[in-house]
Amino acid sequence: MWQFALALGLLGLGPTAAWAHSNADSNARMLELNEQGFAAFGEEDYLRAARKFEAAHDYVADPILRKNAAIAWFKAERCVEASEAAVFFLLAEGTLRQDRDEARSVWGHCQLDQADRAFAAGDVDRAEAIIARVDAVRTDARVKQRLAGARMRLIEMRVNGAEGDLDRVSLGWGLVSVGAAVLIGTGAYHLSADGLDGAAKWAVPTLYGAGTLSTLGGLSLVYLGNNASQESEKPAALRAPAPAFEIGLSMRF
Question: Which domain of life is it from (predicted)?
């Protein structure tokens, strides 16, 4: 749990505002805000839902409200707030295992989203540190699946000495240019030559083959590089499934 304790200290979370209200009024207001949060979530207004759950927590400091807020922040593509709420919940006592798993899922997806951005920026060391951080925490199957993909990407970049997807795209276009030049040059020679004899009988087909392979290989690298970059630019809330509404927003009230 040390990772979460450190993160909480950095987030600067303070005491709730529940002391400012009587118990009866606080409970009534909390229930009202909680219902408004559910309604907003059902309408896919996730930002409003998150704010309602956070406001409800100000009246009654039940950690489950912050877990619900974490899911809503996550769906609203606000990973900073989602991670803060998830970490707060994970540090609370007396919570259910299922709820803790969902909070870890939100936190894990947001962390891996940061790793994807680090990969895209060519910061392999930072991506590796984030992957190690997520690997040290028990998470659900969806986060583990993304984590496995991130590990494979890390290995690929370390082995190939790549600095990011932009290098792959640049190399791809370079191969396309070389291949096209070989094909054009070979074609021009073939058209101007008066038949093929001697070394030309094997050289021309060989050059055609080399030019074709270079062009196709380059296009493949461009395609893979662009796809990886586009994938890394998607927010976690769009790229990975969020915790289920029926489970993630279950309440005890």
Answer: Bacteria
Q: Which of 11, 102, 35, 27 is nearest to 60 (CA)?
A: 27
Q: Within this chain, do residues 171 and 147 fall inside the same structural domain, yes or no?
A: no
Residue 220, pLDDT score: 74
Place of tokens 């590089």: 225
Residues 153 and 174 in one domain: no
> Are 98 and 143 in a shared domain?
yes
On whether residue 210 sits in a domain, the answer given is: yes
In angstroms, the Cα distances linking 126 to 115, 130, 153, 155 are 7, 6, 13, 14
CA 117 distance to own-chain centroid:
8
pLDDT at 229: 52
Neighbouring CB atoms inside 10 A of 6's CB total: 11
Low-confidence stretches of the chain (pLDDT < 70) are 1-22, 161-172, 182, 186-205, 207-208, 211, 218, 221-253
